[in-house]
Protein backbone atom coordinates (compact mmCIF):
# COMPACT_ATOMS: atom_id res chain seq x y z
CA UNK A 1 0.00 0.00 0.00
CA UNK A 2 1.15 3.53 -0.71
CA UNK A 3 1.61 5.94 2.20
CA UNK A 4 -1.58 7.70 1.10
CA UNK A 5 -3.53 4.43 1.11
CA UNK A 6 -2.17 3.46 4.52
CA UNK A 7 -3.19 6.79 6.02
CA UNK A 8 -6.63 6.64 4.38
CA UNK A 9 -7.29 3.15 5.77
CA UNK A 10 -6.00 4.22 9.16
CA UNK A 11 -8.32 7.23 9.24
CA UNK A 12 -11.33 5.11 8.30
CA UNK A 13 -10.78 2.08 10.51
CA UNK A 14 -8.18 2.54 13.28
CA UNK A 15 -8.75 4.14 16.64
CA UNK A 16 -5.85 6.07 18.15
CA UNK A 17 -5.51 7.04 21.83
CA UNK A 18 -8.09 9.58 22.95
CA UNK A 19 -9.33 10.37 19.45
CA UNK A 20 -12.68 10.32 17.71
CA UNK A 21 -13.47 7.60 15.18
CA UNK A 22 -15.91 9.86 13.34
CA UNK A 23 -13.73 12.99 13.31
CA UNK A 24 -10.16 11.83 13.95
CA UNK A 25 -7.21 14.16 14.23
CA UNK A 26 -4.46 13.74 11.61
CA UNK A 27 -1.84 11.01 12.03
CA UNK A 28 1.68 10.81 10.64
CA UNK A 29 3.12 7.68 9.03
CA UNK A 30 6.30 6.43 10.72
CA UNK A 31 8.63 4.61 8.34
CA UNK A 32 11.59 4.03 10.65
CA UNK A 33 13.31 4.97 13.89
CA UNK A 34 16.89 5.05 15.16
CA UNK A 35 18.54 6.57 18.21
CA UNK A 36 16.62 9.62 19.36
CA UNK A 37 14.82 10.06 16.03
CA UNK A 38 11.81 8.78 14.18
CA UNK A 39 11.35 9.04 10.41
CA UNK A 40 8.02 10.41 9.19
CA UNK A 41 6.78 10.00 5.64
CA UNK A 42 6.91 13.33 3.85
CA UNK A 43 8.86 14.98 6.67
CA UNK A 44 12.02 12.96 7.24
CA UNK A 45 13.87 12.43 10.52
CA UNK A 46 12.67 14.32 13.59
CA UNK A 47 13.78 14.22 17.23
CA UNK A 48 11.28 12.29 19.33
CA UNK A 49 10.63 14.58 22.27
CA UNK A 50 8.18 12.05 23.73
CA UNK A 51 10.36 8.89 23.82
CA UNK A 52 7.21 7.12 22.62
CA UNK A 53 5.31 8.13 25.71
CA UNK A 54 8.35 8.09 27.99
CA UNK A 55 9.41 4.50 27.34
CA UNK A 56 12.28 4.59 24.80
CA UNK A 57 14.93 5.78 27.22
CA UNK A 58 17.85 4.15 25.36
CA UNK A 59 16.67 5.24 21.93
CA UNK A 60 15.38 3.22 18.99
CA UNK A 61 17.19 0.22 17.46
CA UNK A 62 19.69 0.00 20.26
CA UNK A 63 22.10 -2.80 19.29
CA UNK A 64 22.12 -4.37 22.77
CA UNK A 65 18.33 -4.49 22.97
CA UNK A 66 17.99 -5.68 19.38
CA UNK A 67 20.37 -8.52 20.11
CA UNK A 68 18.52 -9.48 23.30
CA UNK A 69 15.31 -9.91 21.29
CA UNK A 70 17.02 -11.90 18.52
CA UNK A 71 18.76 -14.16 21.02
CA UNK A 72 15.52 -14.89 22.84
CA UNK A 73 13.67 -15.54 19.56
CA UNK A 74 16.11 -18.37 18.89
CA UNK A 75 14.94 -20.05 22.12
CA UNK A 76 11.20 -19.23 22.39
CA UNK A 77 8.99 -16.20 22.00
CA UNK A 78 6.29 -17.12 24.48
CA UNK A 79 5.13 -19.82 26.86
CA UNK A 80 2.32 -19.73 29.39
CA UNK A 81 3.36 -18.78 32.93
CA UNK A 82 0.79 -20.99 34.66
CA UNK A 83 2.72 -23.95 36.09
CA UNK A 84 5.81 -23.05 34.05
CA UNK A 85 8.72 -20.68 34.42
CA UNK A 86 11.78 -19.70 32.40
CA UNK A 87 15.13 -18.01 32.75
CA UNK A 88 14.16 -14.58 31.33
CA UNK A 89 11.41 -14.15 33.94
CA UNK A 90 13.61 -15.33 36.80
CA UNK A 91 16.49 -13.09 35.72
CA UNK A 92 14.23 -10.05 35.36
CA UNK A 93 12.73 -10.62 38.81
CA UNK A 94 16.24 -10.88 40.26
CA UNK A 95 17.25 -7.58 38.68
CA UNK A 96 14.09 -5.81 39.84
CA UNK A 97 14.60 -7.00 43.41
CA UNK A 98 18.21 -5.77 43.31
CA UNK A 99 17.27 -2.35 41.90
CA UNK A 100 14.09 -1.45 43.79
CA UNK A 101 14.11 -0.19 47.39
CA UNK A 102 15.07 -2.79 50.00
CA UNK A 103 12.21 -4.98 51.16
CA UNK A 104 10.44 -5.23 47.83
CA UNK A 105 11.12 -8.84 46.90
CA UNK A 106 7.94 -10.40 45.48
CA UNK A 107 7.37 -9.77 41.76
CA UNK A 108 4.18 -9.99 39.72
CA UNK A 109 4.85 -9.59 35.99
CA UNK A 110 1.97 -7.88 34.20
CA UNK A 111 1.52 -7.08 30.53
CA UNK A 112 0.84 -3.33 30.82
CA UNK A 113 1.13 -0.50 33.28
CA UNK A 114 -2.60 -0.29 33.87
CA UNK A 115 -2.72 -4.00 34.65
CA UNK A 116 0.11 -3.66 37.18
CA UNK A 117 -1.88 -0.95 38.97
CA UNK A 118 -5.00 -3.14 38.91
CA UNK A 119 -2.92 -5.95 40.44
CA UNK A 120 -1.50 -3.61 43.11
CA UNK A 121 -5.00 -2.51 44.06
CA UNK A 122 -6.12 -6.11 44.18
CA UNK A 123 -3.13 -6.91 46.41
CA UNK A 124 -4.25 -4.20 48.85
CA UNK A 125 -7.85 -5.44 48.91
CA UNK A 126 -6.86 -9.07 49.43
CA UNK A 127 -4.32 -8.03 52.08
CA UNK A 128 -7.09 -6.39 54.10
CA UNK A 129 -9.30 -9.45 53.70
CA UNK A 130 -6.45 -11.62 54.89
CA UNK A 131 -6.34 -9.62 58.12
CA UNK A 132 -10.09 -9.90 58.65
CA UNK A 133 -10.97 -6.42 57.36
CA UNK A 134 -13.13 -7.11 54.27
CA UNK A 135 -15.01 -3.85 54.82
CA UNK A 136 -11.89 -1.96 53.75
CA UNK A 137 -12.60 -1.63 50.04
CA UNK A 138 -11.72 1.97 49.19
CA UNK A 139 -8.49 3.75 48.29
CA UNK A 140 -7.04 7.01 49.50
CA UNK A 141 -5.28 9.11 46.87
CA UNK A 142 -4.81 12.74 45.81
CA UNK A 143 -6.37 14.89 43.17
CA UNK A 144 -4.51 15.40 39.92
CA UNK A 145 -3.39 11.80 39.58
CA UNK A 146 -3.46 9.46 36.61
CA UNK A 147 -3.04 5.69 36.95
CA UNK A 148 -4.32 4.20 33.69
CA UNK A 149 -7.44 3.58 31.68
CA UNK A 150 -8.85 0.32 33.05
CA UNK A 151 -11.76 0.55 35.48
CA UNK A 152 -10.18 0.39 38.94
CA UNK A 153 -7.30 2.51 37.65
CA UNK A 154 -9.75 5.13 36.41
CA UNK A 155 -11.37 5.28 39.85
CA UNK A 156 -8.16 6.64 41.43
CA UNK A 157 -7.51 9.17 38.65
CA UNK A 158 -8.59 12.76 39.21
CA UNK A 159 -12.40 12.62 39.52
CA UNK A 160 -13.12 16.08 38.15
CA UNK A 161 -10.36 17.48 35.95
CA UNK A 162 -9.01 14.13 34.73
CA UNK A 163 -9.69 12.19 31.56
CA UNK A 164 -12.25 9.89 33.18
CA UNK A 165 -14.73 12.32 34.73
CA UNK A 166 -17.50 11.02 32.45
CA UNK A 167 -17.47 7.74 34.40
CA UNK A 168 -18.63 9.38 37.62
CA UNK A 169 -21.35 7.20 39.14
CA UNK A 170 -20.04 4.07 37.44
CA UNK A 171 -16.61 3.77 39.02
CA UNK A 172 -16.00 2.89 42.68
CA UNK A 173 -15.97 6.06 44.78
CA UNK A 174 -12.53 6.58 46.25
CA UNK A 175 -11.28 9.12 48.80
CA UNK A 176 -9.39 12.07 47.32
CA UNK A 177 -7.12 14.40 49.25
CA UNK A 178 -5.89 17.71 47.94
CA UNK A 179 -3.16 17.63 45.34
CA UNK A 180 0.31 17.89 46.96
CA UNK A 181 1.67 21.44 46.96
CA UNK A 182 4.35 22.67 44.61
CA UNK A 183 6.42 24.41 47.29
CA UNK A 184 8.30 23.00 50.29
CA UNK A 185 6.87 25.65 52.59
CA UNK A 186 3.32 24.49 51.95
CA UNK A 187 3.85 20.82 52.83
CA UNK A 188 2.94 21.08 56.52
CA UNK A 189 -0.47 22.67 55.95
CA UNK A 190 -1.28 20.23 53.15
CA UNK A 191 -0.15 17.28 55.29
CA UNK A 192 -2.44 18.29 58.15
CA UNK A 193 -5.47 18.14 55.87
CA UNK A 194 -4.37 14.86 54.32
CA UNK A 195 -3.81 13.24 57.72
CA UNK A 196 -7.24 14.38 58.87
CA UNK A 197 -8.89 12.93 55.77
CA UNK A 198 -7.18 9.57 56.28
CA UNK A 199 -8.31 9.43 59.91
CA UNK A 200 -11.88 10.27 58.95
CA UNK A 201 -12.11 7.40 56.45
CA UNK A 202 -9.76 4.87 58.05
CA UNK A 203 -12.35 2.13 58.63
CA UNK A 204 -13.10 1.75 54.92
CA UNK A 205 -9.64 2.30 53.42
CA UNK A 206 -7.57 -0.58 52.02
CA UNK A 207 -4.68 1.31 50.48
CA UNK A 208 -3.08 4.59 49.52
CA UNK A 209 -1.98 5.01 45.90
CA UNK A 210 -0.01 7.91 44.40
CA UNK A 211 2.47 8.80 41.69
CA UNK A 212 5.57 9.77 43.67
CA UNK A 213 7.24 13.14 43.07
CA UNK A 214 5.61 13.78 39.67
CA UNK A 215 2.00 13.41 38.60
CA UNK A 216 2.09 12.53 34.90
CA UNK A 217 -0.86 12.60 32.53
CA UNK A 218 -3.02 14.26 35.19
CA UNK A 219 -1.13 17.50 34.68
CA UNK A 220 2.67 17.01 34.83
CA UNK A 221 2.70 18.30 38.40
CA UNK A 222 5.91 17.92 40.48
CA UNK A 223 5.81 18.12 44.25
CA UNK A 224 8.26 18.01 47.20
CA UNK A 225 9.83 14.74 48.30
CA UNK A 226 8.69 15.39 51.89
CA UNK A 227 5.16 14.51 50.76
CA UNK A 228 6.31 10.92 50.21
CA UNK A 229 7.27 10.71 53.87
CA UNK A 230 3.77 11.90 54.76
CA UNK A 231 2.24 9.18 52.60
CA UNK A 232 4.37 6.52 54.32
CA UNK A 233 3.45 7.78 57.79
CA UNK A 234 -0.26 7.95 57.00
CA UNK A 235 -0.25 4.43 55.55
CA UNK A 236 1.53 3.07 58.64
CA UNK A 237 -0.73 4.88 61.08
CA UNK A 238 -3.93 3.58 59.52
CA UNK A 239 -2.89 0.11 58.35
CA UNK A 240 -3.00 0.95 54.63
CA UNK A 241 -1.06 -0.69 51.81
CA UNK A 242 1.06 2.08 50.26
CA UNK A 243 1.28 1.81 46.47
CA UNK A 244 3.68 3.95 44.46
CA UNK A 245 2.81 4.07 40.77
CA UNK A 246 6.24 4.63 39.18
CA UNK A 247 5.23 3.64 35.66
CA UNK A 248 6.13 7.15 34.44
CA UNK A 249 8.79 8.08 37.01
CA UNK A 250 10.75 4.84 37.32
CA UNK A 251 14.20 4.15 35.88
CA UNK A 252 15.72 7.57 36.29
CA UNK A 253 13.21 9.97 34.79
CA UNK A 254 13.04 12.32 37.80
CA UNK A 255 16.75 12.15 38.66
CA UNK A 256 16.85 9.14 40.99
CA UNK A 257 16.44 5.57 39.78
CA UNK A 258 13.01 5.52 41.43
CA UNK A 259 11.22 8.63 42.63
CA UNK A 260 10.70 6.94 46.01
CA UNK A 261 14.44 7.29 46.62
CA UNK A 262 14.16 11.07 46.72
CA UNK A 263 12.74 10.74 50.25
CA UNK A 264 14.22 7.38 51.19
CA UNK A 265 10.71 5.92 51.33
CA UNK A 266 9.86 2.31 50.54
CA UNK A 267 6.26 1.61 49.49
CA UNK A 268 4.50 -1.69 50.11
CA UNK A 269 3.91 -2.11 46.38
CA UNK A 270 5.87 -0.50 43.54
CA UNK A 271 4.45 -0.47 40.01
CA UNK A 272 6.82 -0.11 37.07
CA UNK A 273 6.31 -0.22 33.30
CA UNK A 274 6.93 2.01 30.26
CA UNK A 275 10.76 2.26 30.30
CA UNK A 276 11.09 -1.24 31.81
CA UNK A 277 11.76 -2.76 28.37
CA UNK A 278 13.32 0.35 26.89
CA UNK A 279 10.12 0.76 24.89
CA UNK A 280 10.55 -2.48 22.94
CA UNK A 281 7.62 -4.54 24.23
CA UNK A 282 4.73 -4.10 26.61
CA UNK A 283 5.63 -5.28 30.11
CA UNK A 284 5.08 -4.06 33.65
CA UNK A 285 5.54 -5.32 37.18
CA UNK A 286 4.03 -4.91 40.62
CA UNK A 287 6.80 -5.52 43.16
CA UNK A 288 5.66 -5.95 46.76
CA UNK A 289 6.94 -6.82 50.22
CA UNK A 290 6.81 -10.27 51.76
CA UNK A 291 4.34 -8.87 54.32
CA UNK A 292 1.87 -7.95 51.58
CA UNK A 293 2.31 -11.36 49.99
CA UNK A 294 1.64 -13.10 53.33
CA UNK A 295 -1.39 -10.97 54.06
CA UNK A 296 -3.13 -11.50 50.74
CA UNK A 297 -2.32 -15.22 50.85
CA UNK A 298 -4.28 -15.37 54.11
CA UNK A 299 -7.46 -14.21 52.33
CA UNK A 300 -10.15 -16.73 51.53
CA UNK A 301 -8.82 -17.49 48.04
CA UNK A 302 -5.32 -18.18 49.35
CA UNK A 303 -3.84 -16.91 46.08
CA UNK A 304 -3.46 -13.63 44.19
CA UNK A 305 -6.46 -13.68 41.89
CA UNK A 306 -4.86 -12.53 38.65
CA UNK A 307 -3.13 -14.21 35.71
CA UNK A 308 -2.71 -12.55 32.30
CA UNK A 309 -2.23 -14.75 29.23
CA UNK A 310 1.04 -13.03 28.35
CA UNK A 311 2.29 -12.84 31.94
CA UNK A 312 6.07 -13.18 32.04
CA UNK A 313 6.42 -13.14 28.25
CA UNK A 314 10.01 -14.35 27.58
CA UNK A 315 10.72 -11.86 24.79
CA UNK A 316 9.63 -8.93 26.94
CA UNK A 317 11.49 -10.21 30.00
CA UNK A 318 14.70 -10.74 28.04
CA UNK A 319 14.74 -7.26 26.57
CA UNK A 320 13.75 -5.76 29.95
CA UNK A 321 16.78 -7.38 31.61
CA UNK A 322 18.99 -6.03 28.83
CA UNK A 323 17.49 -2.57 29.31
CA UNK A 324 18.15 -2.67 33.05
CA UNK A 325 21.70 -3.81 32.37
CA UNK A 326 22.21 -0.79 30.10
CA UNK A 327 21.06 1.47 32.91
CA UNK A 328 23.34 -0.23 35.41
CA UNK A 329 26.39 -0.12 33.15
CA UNK A 330 25.87 3.38 31.77
CA UNK A 331 25.79 6.86 33.27
CA UNK A 332 22.12 7.68 33.12
CA UNK A 333 22.45 10.15 36.00
CA UNK A 334 24.86 12.25 33.93
CA UNK A 335 22.52 12.10 30.93
CA UNK A 336 19.48 13.12 32.97
CA UNK A 337 21.40 16.03 34.52
CA UNK A 338 22.64 17.09 31.09
CA UNK A 339 19.11 16.96 29.66
CA UNK A 340 17.79 18.95 32.61
CA UNK A 341 20.43 21.61 32.01
CA UNK A 342 19.41 21.89 28.37
CA UNK A 343 15.72 22.11 29.25
CA UNK A 344 16.35 25.23 31.33
CA UNK A 345 16.06 27.14 28.03
CA UNK A 346 12.31 26.59 28.28
CA UNK A 347 12.14 29.19 31.04
CA UNK A 348 12.52 31.89 28.37
CA UNK A 349 9.04 31.02 27.04
CA UNK A 350 6.21 33.39 27.96
CA UNK A 351 3.81 31.00 29.71
CA UNK A 352 1.72 30.56 32.83
CA UNK A 353 4.44 28.33 34.21
CA UNK A 354 7.52 26.43 33.09
CA UNK A 355 8.69 23.50 35.21
CA UNK A 356 11.52 21.04 34.91
CA UNK A 357 12.38 17.94 36.92
CA UNK A 358 15.04 15.46 35.87
CA UNK A 359 14.52 14.68 32.18
CA UNK A 360 11.09 16.32 32.12
CA UNK A 361 10.22 19.74 30.77
CA UNK A 362 6.73 21.26 30.91
CA UNK A 363 5.28 24.50 29.57
CA UNK A 364 1.80 25.38 30.79
CA UNK A 365 -0.24 27.82 28.71
CA UNK A 366 -3.28 29.87 29.73
CA UNK A 367 -5.51 27.99 27.27
CA UNK A 368 -6.07 24.56 25.81
CA UNK A 369 -3.44 23.69 23.21
CA UNK A 370 -4.47 23.42 19.58
CA UNK A 371 -2.81 20.04 19.17
CA UNK A 372 -2.79 20.06 15.37
CA UNK A 373 -1.25 23.53 15.06
CA UNK A 374 1.23 22.92 17.87
CA UNK A 375 2.32 19.61 16.36
CA UNK A 376 2.87 21.17 12.95
CA UNK A 377 4.89 24.02 14.47
CA UNK A 378 7.13 21.59 16.33
CA UNK A 379 7.61 19.43 13.23
CA UNK A 380 8.76 22.53 11.35
CA UNK A 381 11.57 22.67 13.94
CA UNK A 382 12.36 18.99 13.41
CA UNK A 383 10.71 17.73 16.61
CA UNK A 384 7.85 15.37 17.41
CA UNK A 385 5.69 16.45 20.39
CA UNK A 386 2.24 15.44 21.60
CA UNK A 387 0.70 18.19 23.79
CA UNK A 388 -2.42 17.70 25.87
CA UNK A 389 -4.84 20.00 27.66
CA UNK A 390 -2.93 23.26 28.33
CA UNK A 391 0.48 21.57 28.42
CA UNK A 392 3.33 21.29 25.93
CA UNK A 393 5.95 19.02 27.40
CA UNK A 394 8.85 16.70 26.71
CA UNK A 395 10.18 13.50 28.30
CA UNK A 396 12.91 12.64 25.77
CA UNK A 397 15.17 9.61 25.38
CA UNK A 398 18.24 9.74 27.61
CA UNK A 399 20.46 9.31 24.52
CA UNK A 400 19.46 12.73 23.19
CA UNK A 401 22.43 14.93 22.41
CA UNK A 402 22.72 18.55 23.47
CA UNK A 403 21.71 19.51 19.92
CA UNK A 404 18.64 17.28 20.19
CA UNK A 405 17.59 18.97 23.42
CA UNK A 406 18.13 22.39 21.88
CA UNK A 407 15.91 21.33 18.98
CA UNK A 408 13.25 20.09 21.40
CA UNK A 409 13.29 23.44 23.20
CA UNK A 410 12.93 25.22 19.85
CA UNK A 411 10.04 22.92 18.96
CA UNK A 412 8.26 23.59 22.26
CA UNK A 413 8.81 27.34 21.82
CA UNK A 414 7.30 27.24 18.34
CA UNK A 415 4.39 25.09 19.54
CA UNK A 416 3.69 27.48 22.40
CA UNK A 417 3.63 30.45 20.02
CA UNK A 418 0.91 28.97 17.79
CA UNK A 419 -0.82 26.56 20.18
Give a quick set of tags describing it.
4-stranded mixed beta sheet, pyridoxal phosphate binding, 419 residues, 13 helices, adenosylmethionine-8-amino-7-oxononanoate transaminase activity, transferase, single chain, 37% helix, 7-stranded mixed beta sheet, alpha/beta, PyrdxlP-dep_Trfase, Aspartate Aminotransferase, domain 2, 16 strands, BioA, globular, Aspartate Aminotransferase, domain 1
Q: Rough shape?
A: globular
Number of helices: 13
> How much beta, percentage-wise?
15-25%
Number of strands: 16
Rounded to the nearest angstrom, the distance between the terminal CA atoms is 33 Å
What is the arithmetic mean of pLDDT?
96
Do you know the CATH architecture of the largest domain? 3-Layer(aba) Sandwich
In oligomeric terms, what are we looking at? single chain
The CATH C-level name of the largest domain is: Alpha Beta
Task: Report the helical percentage.
Answer: 25-40%
Sequence stretches where pLDDT stays below 50 over 5 or more residues: none
Kindly report the spatial arrangement of strands forming the biggest sheet: 4-12-11-10-7-5-6
CATH superfamily name of the largest domain?
Type I PLP-dependent aspartate aminotransferase-like (Major domain)
Protein name: Adenosylmethionine-8-amino-7-oxononanoate aminotransferase
Keywords: Aminotransferase, Biotin biosynthesis, Cytoplasm, Pyridoxal phosphate, S-adenosyl-L-methionine, Transferase
Subunit structure: Homodimer.
Pfam families: Aminotran_3
Amino acid sequence: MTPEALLAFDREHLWHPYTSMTDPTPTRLVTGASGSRITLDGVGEVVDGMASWWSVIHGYRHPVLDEAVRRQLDRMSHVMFGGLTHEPAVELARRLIDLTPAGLDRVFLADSGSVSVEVAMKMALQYQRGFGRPERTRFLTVRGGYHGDTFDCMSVCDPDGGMHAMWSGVLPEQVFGERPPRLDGEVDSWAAGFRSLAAEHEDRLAGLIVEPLLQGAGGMHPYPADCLTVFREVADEHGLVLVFDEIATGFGRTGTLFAAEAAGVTPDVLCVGKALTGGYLSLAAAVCTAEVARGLSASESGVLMHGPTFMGNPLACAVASASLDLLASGDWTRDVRRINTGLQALHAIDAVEVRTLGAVGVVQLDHAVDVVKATEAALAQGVWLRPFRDLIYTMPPYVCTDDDIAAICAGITAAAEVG
